[in-house]
TrEMBL record:
Keywords: Membrane, Transmembrane, Transmembrane helix. The chain crosses the membrane at residues 6-27, 47-64, 76-98, 110-133. The keyword Transmembrane applies. This is Uncharacterized protein. The keyword Transmembrane helix applies.
């Protein structure tokens, strides 16, 4: 594996620690230790789940990117698209419901669809790169 790939893998593994601490926060919310309305509880759950799944997916895709024979920008997108989505989407879920008792998501919720678009682009690049690398 390339040194840059290993470095990113290490960063992603360490980022999972933030998901772990987010789980502790979510536990406080669900047990009543931190006040939250239904909207906040649902969005906190979604943010936590997206962060965990996308970070693990990032780690699963990463080793394959070293074999891609794509333009440098496409390899960069394949390598960083899913990790970027792992930041953007949960940030939208958490920041979108800040406040004492929000009745609807705030402006930061726009990070969710932006993250989804980045996720799609990263997965497209990764999928195309894997198919291209596997062809004789």
């Amino acid at each position: 594996m390339e040194p840059a790939t290993l470095t990113l893998a290490g960063i992603l593994m360490l980022a999972l620690i933030t998901v772990e601490s987010g789980g502790a926060f979510l536990l406080r919310v669900t047990t009543g230790g931190h006040p939250a309305n239904d909207l906040q509880r649902n969005w906190y759950r979604a943010g936590h789940a997206h962060a965990a799944v996308l970070l693990v997916l990032s780690l699963a895709i990463l080793p394959y990117t070293d074999a891609y024979e794509l333009p440098a920008w496409a390899v960069w997108l394949a390598r960083s698209g899913v990790p970027a989505a792992a930041l953007l989407m949960p940030a939208g879920f958490f920041l979108g419901v800040l406040g004492q008792d929000p009745q609807k998501p705030g402006r930061a919720a726009v990070l969710v669809p932006i993250g989804a678009a980045v996720l799609t682009a990263g997965l497209l690049a990764a999928g195309i790169g894997a198919i291209a690398a596997g062809r004789p």
